[in-house]
């Protein structure tokens, strides 16, 4: 019997302690609704597939006590949220969030992923901040102007040449209150 399609709506998958052998299937990255994944205490080998970076809703991950090796998925912030205990017992794994640094065949350290926020995100944050300030200022000014226009019964002052005089504006505001 051949499995034609795997359901992608699973939210929790626990396949621990099953003596599974081989590599973690790449298609596991298609389970985008997954919140909990436990593949601990098996005989899984090889690298963690980069497709697991698609599991953005993943809250709990346990890949401990396998024989996984290689560098953690570089550039994937999702794996930085898990503790070292999630990968314990995989002597060949290296890179963040593990304390084991990755090295090449000669023992030289590899350039590992440094978690930094890209400048484009900072620019977007600043843009939203300024947009929010401008919208807030516009709404506040609009409310003050609306109050002045609609609360004063005699609106002739609006067309008066003395409109810009501060004592006149203060008098109008006092009358409105």
Automatic annotation (TrEMBL):
<feature type="transmembrane region" description="Helical">
    <location>
        <begin position="128"/>
        <end position="150"/>
    </location>
</feature>
<keyword id="KW-1133">Transmembrane helix</keyword>
<keyword id="KW-0812">Transmembrane</keyword>
<keyword id="KW-0675">Receptor</keyword>
<keyword id="KW-0472">Membrane</keyword>
<dbReference type="InterPro" id="IPR001611">
    <property type="entry name" value="Leu-rich_rpt"/>
</dbReference>
<dbReference type="Pfam" id="PF13855">
    <property type="entry name" value="LRR_8"/>
</dbReference>
<keyword id="KW-0597">Phosphoprotein</keyword>
<keyword id="KW-0325">Glycoprotein</keyword>
<keyword id="KW-1003">Cell membrane</keyword>
<dbReference type="InterPro" id="IPR032675">
    <property type="entry name" value="LRR_dom_sf"/>
</dbReference>
<protein>
    <submittedName>
        <fullName>Leucine-rich repeat receptor protein kinase EMS1-like</fullName>
    </submittedName>
</protein>
<keyword id="KW-0677">Repeat</keyword>
<keyword id="KW-0433">Leucine-rich repeat</keyword>
<keyword id="KW-0732">Signal</keyword>
<comment type="similarity">
    <text>Belongs to the RLP family.</text>
</comment>
<dbReference type="GO" id="GO:0005886">
    <property type="term" value="C:plasma membrane"/>
</dbReference>
